[in-house]
Here is the input.
Amino acid sequence: MKIMNGRDEEVLLKKYAENLPGLIFRLTVDQNKIPHLSFLCKEAGNLLKIDPREIEHNPSRLYDLVLPEERAEIRELFRRSMRTGEKIERDIFASLPDGSNHWFRIEATHRKLPGGRGDEWFGAALDVTDIRKEKRELSESKELLEGIFSSVEDAIFLIGPGRSVVQSANAAVEYIFGYRPDELEGETTEILHLDRESFEEFGRLTRKSLEQKQSFHGEFQMRRRNGEVFPTEHSITVLNPESGWNGGVVSVVRDITERKKLEKELRDSEKRYRDLVENLNDVVYLVDREGRITYVTPPVQTVLGYTPDKLTGTVFFPLVHPEDKGRIGQEFERTITGERIVTEFRIRVGSGEYLWVRTSSVPVYDTGGIVGLQGVLTDISGRKQAEEEKANLEKQFHHAQKLESVGRLAGGVAHDFNNLLSPILGYSEMLMEEEADAESCRELSEEIYKAAGKAADLTRQLLAFGRKQTLEMEVLDMNEVLKGLEKLLRRTIREEIDIDLQLSSESLPVMADQGQVEQVIMNLAVNAQDAMPGKGTMTIETGLLDLDEESADVYHGINSGLYAMLAVRDTGTGMDRETLDQVFDPFFTTKAQDKGTGLGLATTYGIVKQHGGSIHPYSEPGRGSIFKVYLPICREACPTEKSLEMRENAPRGTETILVVEDDDNVRDLAARILESLGYKVLEAPDGEHALHSAKVYEGPIDLLLTDVVMPKMRGREVSEKLSAVRPELKVLFMSGYTDRNISRDQILDQGAHFIQKPFGKVQLAVKVREVLDDRIPPH
Here is the structure.
């Protein structure tokens, strides 16, 4: 055998190292601390994706592949190895020139070069990227399984073959059975079973699962540590022998006490439901998509005269009255497409006659969709008979009312026409019988002409009341119409009546017949004059009102939008509720018999309604009256975009507001508006309830919004009593009267905050915010 010298041995080792997998290297650091790669295997270039010569000439190039934050630590490893001679072992993360990232396991052995020439390391670097990935995935999988095993709410047992010995258990075992997992490990499951028989049955099924390699599901009565017996559901799965559990099973045990309880409750509920349904007076039925009756309750025999077995399996359409059959067929089709239908029709009963019934039906769903409908059928023949009798009575009543109204109208017209015909007939006879000069003939003719003119006016009033006259519509500004009538008003109204004209600064364009609008103004002015026997003040006011849908419906029953408001107010004696309810009736009057026909306000009502507007009186005895007319603004002349934008951006708040109003609709409207703006709202129908609400409410109340005129206690008294106990309370009054009238009549203090009814969302939002923020002085 040939003995190799040192040189040959080194060559052989080098050749062997170059063919090893991984990166084999020898690193030398001389006495000047300069690193040299005295050996680098050929595989280095493939592993590091870099030219080996580049590394040989510049060993520090290897550091460039390492993350910057780790470079200092690696240098410290080599320094420590130089000092202590310890072996270097470390995983290093490297970013290679081709953009890929790899983990390398570095192991290097240190030795001192002889003669103090420096230090040397001989080592290897293996790519462990895939190994680390597999370890990480395995660790994550293990953590996941351990997490599931520990956190699942069901009890899980790992049971070895043989006598059902518990190898391991999860934490839920203690919650369900009362035993800690370590207390059960090494024990058989007999301790958990109700009795020996149950345990042996469990063992038999476990062995069967092992033999047949199949899972098993079943239910067992088991026992907790405290002796309580409860129902459980078991799921047994055979473990793979390769899992390390020697071919045992996994037993998952679920406490089904609640489920069993619910199942019993469901059975009891179904029995109660069946007992209830079958003893109802109404008929409950099921019908399939073809209209075939699949189920019907026993009361069908009492209601329709058929036994359930006779109807079951038959199609119900032939029983429907011929006149109702087409409609019922359409509604049936709508039901089986998903709608709920409530309808009434006639159905043939066992005697052959037809009976009125009402049905409410809904679709019945299955996994495949709608399979039919179910419903309730009720006998309404008695109600239909009562409705028919009621309709006949209403018809008779309306006929009687019509006769009364016609008689009243005829009496009023006859009275006025007799008064008008008397001078016409008298003066006509005088013209025919007397030999009169031209002057006297002229006088008689003028009297006849005046009487005929009054007769024509009466005819025109009758047409306006019936809304039958022809209108000549044009765009008018209400302010300009009033300015044009001002002189005539002052000449017509008695001198002792002061006329206060308060016109809006905004344009109020309306589409109207000028003559008819002027008649409305004159009628209201004359009516106000007659309400003030002596001296008094008549206030005529105009304004622009923006009503949202809720306000329009509550106050007027008209459409939402912009309206021109005309208000005529007097300081007369006022009216009670009974008079207010009749004020627009034709020929109703509180004046003396020779002072008026009672057609003035009825005519005004007819004209306003014919113009698509609304008119409303406000009054109470001793407080005068105010009539408000609302005519729709002509949109062509007055765009509403700004108004709509204001509604959308109405000021909001979060304060608490107490709303006191005796009218339910107005109170509900105000509360809904304020709640939609973010406020907390308390409601009271009168002063007594308001005081009680303020007393029991523990939080702050920031604002009182109260009607001025209410029964029992007026708004002013409510505010005074509340302010005494809640001095921080701010107050905003509301009324159908104008603020000037309220202040002038000393119903409120001169400095009170006030908003006039009706109001829309924007008006109320702005006013409430101004009062709460103290941004306006009291008017």
Observations:
- The two ends are 128 Å apart (CA to CA).
- Residues 1-6, 463-470, 639-644 have pLDDT under 50 and may be disordered.
- The CA atoms of residues 416 and 594 lie 10 Å apart.
- The first strand starts at residue 23 and ends at 30.
